[in-house]
Amino acid sequence: MKIGDAIRRIERSARLDPVAAFARSLIRRVPPGRAADTLHGVDLGHPMHPLLVQVPIGAWMSATVLDLFPGTRRPALGLIDLGVAAALPAMAAGALDFAEQHPRQQRVGMVHAVSAKCGVLLYAASAVARHRGRQGWGKALGFAGMGMVGVAGMLGAHIAYSLNGGVSHTEQDRDLLPEGWHDLGPLDDFAEDTPVRRVVGGVPVVVVRSDQDVRVLTEACSHLGGPLSDGTVAEGCITCPWHGSTFRMADGSVVHGPATSPQTVLETLVVDGVVSVRRPDHGSAPHHGTEIPHPRAAETMPTGPTGLA
Ligand code: FES
């Protein structure tokens, strides 16, 4: 059996769901806010967990290599201590991400987390043994820990690459948007601060009219593809109904996680009371060719994201 097929059996194992639900309920007691956003990676614009795990994995991998050579007792012990300490924030960030994922991701995530925690415990035991001068036990526990960390890493990669955990679920929409201006309908069809779903060349977008402004963003939330047109609008931001990610409508940037990638904001123009949009990077890629003017306002194009004419 292929490794991927074995992991997909974990994805389908609903027996893990009660445990996942319990873990999720505990983790969600962490209040949303600055600390949670930082651990998700909102400040970086990149998931934090895969960055944080580099430190313990790198330290432990280096200690494993040092263990193969004589006279390396002290540096190997220092690296193992460093790895155990650095694993704590990495686990915290991973737990917060886990709590806002879909069931198949969480099933694999449960096994990933158990493997990782076993690895941490084995390395902690290795450190204790080494501090007590039991070098042989320390090395054996360290090698076992490396094995568990390897399993955890493989499962984490499966969540990221096969189950799309942590990737942007809207990034491809930007490239799929067709060239040129596209009418979305009369401005009067859009009530104030009420998100409305429209489709541009097969790509769903969400339209929000506020005062004299119209903002149009890609509809699928970058976190897990939630429908932003079912979300709520307040203070220039739109909040996803699934896990509460909040995006600034002016530029698509993430205000609150768990999302870490921005939404694409389309260029908007209102001509003769009709809302039109086009992709934000029109004409910038080689295959885009020359700029296609708006059919009803060919003389002057606005440079901002929204133009009222
Ligand atoms: S899909 Fe999770 S916050 Fe939008």
TrEMBL record:
Pfam families named in the record: DUF2231 (PF09990), Rieske (PF00355)
Keyword Nucleotide-binding: no
Positions with biased composition (Basic and acidic residues): 278-297
Signal peptide stretch: none
Rieske domain boundaries: 182-277
CDD domains given in the database record: Rieske
Keyword Nucleus: no
InterPro entries (UniProt xref): Cholesterol_7-desaturase, DUF2231_TM, Rieske_2Fe-2S, Rieske_2Fe-2S_sf
Gene3D superfamilies per UniProt: Rieske [2Fe-2S] iron-sulphur domain (2.102.10.10)
Transmembrane stretches, start-end: 140-161
Disordered: annotated span: 278-309
Keyword vocabulary terms for this entry: 2Fe-2S, Iron, Iron-sulfur, Membrane, Metal-binding, Oxidoreductase, Transmembrane, Transmembrane helix
Name of this protein: Rieske 2Fe-2S domain-containing protein
